[in-house]
Design goal:
Layout: H1 9-13, E1 19-21, E2 26-30, H2 36-43, E3 48-51, E4 56-60, H3 63-71, H4 76-86, H5 95-104, E5 109-113, E6 126-131, H6 134-141, E7 151-152, E8 160-165, H7 169-178, E9 183-185, H8 213-223, E10 232-236, H9 243-254, E11 258-262, H10 265-278, E12 286-289, E13 299-303, H11 304-307, E14 330-334, H12 341-349, E15 354-359, H13 369-376, E16 379-382, H14 385-390, E17 397-404, H15 408-416, H16 419-427, H17 431-442, E18 447-451, H18 455-465, E19 469-470, H19 476-487, E20 493-496, E21 509-514, H20 522-530, E22 541-548, H21 552-566, E23 571-576
Helix pairs in contact: 2-4, 4-5, 7-12, 7-13, 8-9, 15-16, 17-18, 20-21
Length: 578
């Protein structure tokens, strides 16, 4: 029998359905109600988490979330069924109808080859934008910003049509989604140079290898039937679940020259190691394009940093030429949520190349999710983190927030500081050092990452813990030496800055201690938790966040935890006195 709360609310909540639907398209999820977990999983494909305090989580249904759902095969009927199954009260009138209206916009505008049987034109470098009815065509024709890209074309029996240059394919799509019209892109892709890519059944390291069922499904969702409207999109999978394998599976389906963009040199080397280990590609087929080495081969892996480098602020990006170095048939954007804004520009020009985005979260701190949708592709596949955890594909994570008071001598400086300085004082609370040391001692059998934002704090922790430190200034050979020692168990604790947020493969890491972060970045929270989620034979993963009590850091920490709440994780809160 459950413990009764003072007013009986907890007991009553357990007898009620968990979801409250409001007329403004917000969904309130009572996390204490029976079936809350199932309701969360049901609404995740079409709703975005906004707030996650202790008792009621708030989700919002947005046009972009509905278009993502539509592109993944969900219909208004599916969404109505999901909401109705879990709704506590009668759904406000008009809400369900508004979902259907928004979702119906996806597919009202199609982009096709000018050589389509529907309508032929002579220009080989021309595409057509086809509107299902004349009213939409008139609305688009009235948009001044589109006037320089779109020219009226013969309607050919449809509601309205415009011609556009091939090179403007992405720019037009991005502008239209800003106007509330997602484009269903069915224009053809260039084939790229052929490249035989096969997956091994036994890896070069001698271990049996086969993609997991969800990895196969994810690759298939992007590849589709190989026809119009397929061959591009975003896959959302937890860190540690093998997104690289999904990328290799798509490569094995398309069998074409591939350009892979990722976050740092260590991630480039990990891609190379994985490709050599799990595919039949030979070393001469794979090249690294970074600050250290600028080679090009049928499969080339580059960093976002080198692609977006330029000699001066107003200058050109000389390494954009890499996109035109070969006849690429596939571009893979690793950690696509970090795609730098300058790359959007060149991505807009490369819409004729198949595109795959890989990420653990579609959250972008700059709010440019619509650009990812229109330029890389809609979300084609995702799996809740908890589902993979339940099947043993990622480790079960125990998340704990540890709150520590500010020392007396910092309370006055904190009170009179500017907002930004308040955050730094709270983040660098010296009592966090003792807490981190104690946690390291408590986890004597674990491989531990101590992660933070501020270099001076990390340098002090590295000295205290007698652990190696990796920051953005650490040379790549030294980084890889430290990572290698960690993987071999020669080093049990490493202290790392934000460089460890992205695409670092440390499969034995089982405990993370987060001493400071990038304000309220949910994206960063996802990446840091992901560092410790590789399966460990049934052992738990431990994720600690150290937060200064009664400071702005608590507010930012609450925002960071939204992502974990959306994935079904719960934080316990401990108050430590040191």
């Amino acid at each position: 029998m459950s413990k009764k709360s003072p007013d009986g609310a907890g007991q009553r909540s357990g007898l009620l359905k968990p979801l409250i639907v409001q007329s403004d398209r917000t969904l309130l999820l009572d996390v204490h109600a029976a079936g809350a977990g199932e309701a969360r999983a049901a609404i995740m494909p079409f709703a975005e988490l906004e707030k996650s305090p202790e008792h009621i989580h708030t989700y919002r249904i947005t046009p972009l979330s509905l278009w993502n759902a539509a592109s993944a095969g969900f219909s208004p009927v599916d969404i109505t069924a999901a909401i109705s199954a879990h709704s506590r009260y009668e759904i406000p009138s008009g809400v369900l109808e508004s979902f259907a209206d928004t979702m119906s916009r996806y597919g009202k505008i199609r982009m096709v080859s000018a050589d389509t049987p529907v309508c032929k034109t002579a220009a080989a470098d021309t595409l057509l934008l086809l509107c299902k009815d004349e009213a939409i065509a008139r609305e688009i024709a009235a948009v001044v910003s589109l006037g320089k890209y779109l020219k009226p074309a013969k309607t050919c029996g449809v509601g309205g049509a415009f011609s556009l240059r091939l090179i403007d394919r992405g720019t037009v799509k991005r502008e239209l989604i800003r106007l509330g019209w997602p484009v269903q892109d069915e224009a053809p892709f260039v084939q790229g140079e052929d490249l035989a890519v096969g997956l091994r059944q036994t890896s070069r390291s001698g271990r049996p290898f086969a993609p997991r069922d969800y990895q196969v499904d994810a690759a298939a969702s992007v590849y589709g039937d190989g026809g119009p409207g397929t061959g591009y999109g975003v896959i959302v999978l937890p860190c540690g679940s093998g997104k690289t394998v999904v990328g290799m599976a798509v490569m094995s389906l398309l069998k074409t020259n591939t350009l892979i963009l990722t976050t740092n040199v260590a991630a480039v080397h990990q891609w190379i190691e994985e490709l050599l280990d799990k595919t039949d590609l030979e070393p001469e087929n794979i090249a690294e394009y970074t600050g250290d080495s600028k080679s090009v081969a049928p499969v080339t892996i580059a960093t976002y940093q080198i692609i977006t480098w330029r000699p001066n602020r107003g200058g050109d990006f000389p390494h954009f030429r890499l996109f035109r170095e070969r006849a690429w048939g596939l571009i893979i954007y690793d950690e696509v949520h970090l795609l730098p804004a300058p790359v959007f520009r060149v991505t807009a020009e490369l819409q004729a190349v198949r595109r795959l985005g890989l990420t653990a979260t579609l959250i972008r701190e700059d709010g440019a999710e619509d650009a990812v949708f229109s330029l890389v592709g809609p979300k084609r596949y995702d799996v809740p983190w908890k589902d993979l955890e339940g099947k043993g594909w990622i480790a079960e994570a125990v998340c704990t927030e540890i709150r520590l008071d500010l020392p007396e001598d910092l309370k006055i400086p904190y009170a009179v500081a500017s907002p930004r300085e308040k955050y730094r004082i709270a983040s660098e609370n010296p009592l966090k050092e003792d807490a981190a040391r104690q946690l390291v001692e408590n986890h004597g059998e674990d491989q531990i990452l101590v992660i933070g934002q501020y270099i001076s704090q990390l340098e002090s922790l590295a000295r205290l813990l007698k652990a190696p430190l990796i920051t953005g200034k650490t040379a790549n050979p030294e980084r890889e030496r430290i990572y290698g020692a960690f993987k071999k168990g020669e080093v049990r604790v490493i202290v790392v800055s934000r460089v460890a947020n992205f695409a670092i493969d440390l499969p034995d890491a089982s405990c993370a201690i987060q001493v400071s972060g990038s304000f309220g970045s949910r994206q960063e929270e996802a990446q840091r938790l992901g560092r410790i989620l590789r399966p460990k034979g049934g052992k738990n993963a431990w994720f600690y966040t150290l937060v200064s009590h009664y400071t702005v850091e608590e507010d930012f920490a609450a925002n960071r935890q939204k992502f974990l709440a959306e994935q079904g994780y719960k934080y316990s809160i401990q108050h430590w006195v040191i």
